[in-house]
Design brief:
There is one protein chain. The chain is of the alpha/beta class. Helices cover about 40% and strands about 15% of the residues. The chain folds into 2 domains: about 55 residues, no CATH class; about 180 residues, Rossmann fold (3-Layer(aba) Sandwich). A 7-stranded mixed sheet has the order 2-1-3-4-5-6-7, with helices on one face. A hairpin with a 4-residue loop joins strand 6 and strand 7. The longest helix is centred in the C-terminal third of the chain and has 19 residues.
């Protein structure tokens, strides 16, 4: 049993964020007592009710490059839209860059089929360096985009992966399917996006990144895009409290 005394004015906004599924940082941004808010949010995080890594050390990087990880038409479209926005962009291997100690302003990782093993490693390295990132890959005929990962605020790839396995009736088969997508020559080529679909998908990813770098709070949603019908479905994904993510889960 946990009892929360609602006398502090900071408690109400924090509880509202937790119940609505909004980032905890939403409440802090409106709080007149940020130090008191940090203490209360940390208590909620220690109890496993919230994800909170403390007040951000700095504002989003306003000058660094956006690193586009991946190849192909969608990666090229993302890089083009980043450049058209006036933001510096580069194309390269995000895992290699993070291992070398580089820290881009943000990373957009684009793949054909879902690269489960690779994204788990990228998620770990991005978490360790505090680098925000978003992603896109196909599963079946659906292109999944995001969510934009901002550490301490929104879900990372490991959070999304863990929640999907927990919701599955056959998690072992789902993991085996993800593994098969990374084996050379086994899956067929991913669907081909037309010019309109490429522009829409790239625009969504770039708007996430530029919005964050402009100081706007990202959404919790992962978006499922069906290119055949040009339909979009949004699926909120909340981060999992760190004390519930056991070492075995992260291996």
């Amino acid at each position: 049993m946990h009892r929360v005394e609602l006398a502090p004015p900071i408690a109400g906004p924090l509880l509202s964020c937790l119940l609505d599924g909004r980032p905890v940082a939403d409440a802090r941004a409106l709080c007149a007592d940020p130090d008191g808010f940090d203490r209360l949010a940390a208590a909620f995080a220690d109890a496993g009710f919230a994800v909170w890594s403390g007040a951000p050390d700095s504002s989003p990087d306003s000058d660094g490059q956006v690193l586009v990880d991946g190849a192909g038409p969608l990666a090229a479209e993302v890089l083009d839209k980043v450049a058209r926005s006036g933001r510096a962009g580069d194309e390269g291997d995000a895992i290699g860059a993070l291992r070398r100690g580089e820290r881009p302003a943000a990373i957009v990782s684009v793949a054909g089929w879902l690269p489960d093993t690779r994204w788990r490693e990228l998620d770990r390295l991005a978490d360790a360096s505090g680098t925000p990132w978003t992603r896109a890959a196909f599963e079946g005929s659906t292109l999944y985009l995001g969510p934009m990962t901002v550490w301490g605020t929104t879900a990372g790839y490991q959070d999304v992966r863990t929640r999907r396995l927990a919701a599955s009736d056959c998690p072992d088969e789902l993991e085996a399917y993800w593994a098969s997508l990374s084996r050379p020559g086994e899956p067929p080529p991913p669907p081909v996006l037309g010019p309109a679909e490429l522009a829409a998908a790239a625009g969504f990813l770039v708007s996430q990144v530029l919005g964050h770098l402009a100081g706007r709070l990202p959404t919790h949603a992962q978006v499922a895009f069906d290119p055949a019908g040009f339909t979009w479905a949004s699926h909120p994904v909340l981060p999992i409290p760190r004390n519930l993510m056991t070492a075995g889960t992260l291996d």
